[in-house]
Amino acid sequence: MAAVSRIFHFIHRVAGVKYGRCMTKPFSQRPALPRRQLPRSFKDLTPSKHFNPRTFFQELVWKALLTRRTGQQRRPVFPKLSRGQVAVTWIGHASFLVQFTDLNVLIDPNFANWLFLLKRIKRSGLKIRDLPPIDLVLLTHAHFDHFHKPTLRRLPHPKIGLMPWGVGDLAFDLGFSRIIEMDWWESFSQRDWKVTFTPSQHWGARTLADHHRGYGGFVLEYQGRKIYHAGDSAYFDGFKQIGEKFSPEIALLPIGAYHPESFRRVHMGPDEAVKAFKDLRARWLVPMHYGSFKLSFEALDEPPRWLRQIAVQENLMAKLRMLDEGVPVVF
After folding, report:
1. pLDDT of 190 strictly over 50
2. Cα(121)–Cα(138) distance, integer angstroms
3. What angle is formed at CA 245 by the lines to CA 313 and CA 253, rounded to 5 degrees?
4. CATH code, 191
5. Which residue of 4, 110, 161, 244 could cross-link 148, Cys pair, CB 3.0 to 4.6 Å?
6. Is 227 domain-assigned?
7. Any domain includes 33
8. Could you report the per-residue pLDDT of 231-259, keeping only the tens digit for each?
9. Ramachandran area for residue 177 (φ above 0: left; ψ -120 to 50: alpha; else beta)
10. Which residues touch 195 (CB under 8 Å, ≥6 apart)?
11. For position 41, what pLDDT does the model report?
């Protein structure tokens, strides 16, 4: 892709926040809006139509309440990096800190112990106060487990927030000095780093009435390195296209919330994550989106166990990096 344009469709200030829309690709790079219709039952409140109130409460709320919260919050020792090195710290769930010599990036930060009725089963790997100054925050979509307002409000003065189309209005009062909305395949850059917003197979509504909000993943390019965060996604052919365009070295891929089978319309299991990893032509697979919240019906320890089994069968153990929460790993 050529040098990234800095043109904006509109720029204005709301409560002192500079807000704009990136314009490196036409508006057509969005999925079609779903047809609006009133829900007829609780099942219709999700695109997968996968549970009724009784099942939801028993599987996702009650079982979590009875599960003892585990995990240790460490005070991280961030490594001193040389140019071209990147440190990746898994905070938990889909949250990551990505560090270069002079750039600190947070992706989908969520330090919550509760999401309404949903209890966090495993603590975040570190505390917000132990984060370094944050230069850039990438938000893949507006779902509460990825776009957590209390966490974002408490971050140490994030400078720039990149997020999908239709999501910027949620971030006005969260401390960002600049908010950029992006369509699929649009890129935004400053100095020598570049971020491209990529498609996913998911949905973006935060409530029943806001299907206009976007969703996707990000490719971060800096100092000769490429890191891809898929956000939430089912398996789809778009991974091949992302692999052809970028061939990212490090692929942060979700592996949880896939059971029952209807969940796979919007999420991947370990089997499909491995398939996506191959499509992406990546060097390392870093799994995420498991073990922190009970969002589906499989056992909490099943996704990593199944992923290791597949990696052994397919001779991929050397490419699999299972991170411990709160522990920086240098790539």
Report:
1. yes
2. 24
3. 40
4. 3.60.15.10
5. 110
6. yes
7. no
8. 999 999 999 999 999 999 999 999 998 88
9. alpha
10. 136, 138, 162, 187, 188, 189, 218, 219, 220, 221
11. 46
C-alpha 93: how far from chain center: 9
pLDDT for residue 39: 45
Distance CA 100, CA 79 (A): 10
Rounded CA-CA distance 267/282 in Å is 20
> Cα 23–102–318 angle (5° rounding)?
90
The 10 Å Cβ neighbour count of residue 77 is: 7
Q: Report the half-sphere exposure of 330 (CA within 13 A, side-chain side).
A: 11
Give exposure, 292-302, as e/b (b: 16+ Cβ within 10 Å). Answer: bbbbbbbebeb
Q: Which two tokens stand for residue 89?
A: 């710290």
User: What is the span of the domain harbouring residue 321?
Assistant: 8-23+85-330
Q: How many domains does the chain have?
A: 1
Residue 96 lies inside a defined structural domain of this protein: yes
Q: What is the mean pLDDT of the chain?
A: 86
Is 151 contained in some domain? yes
Could you tell me the pTM of the whole model? 0.87
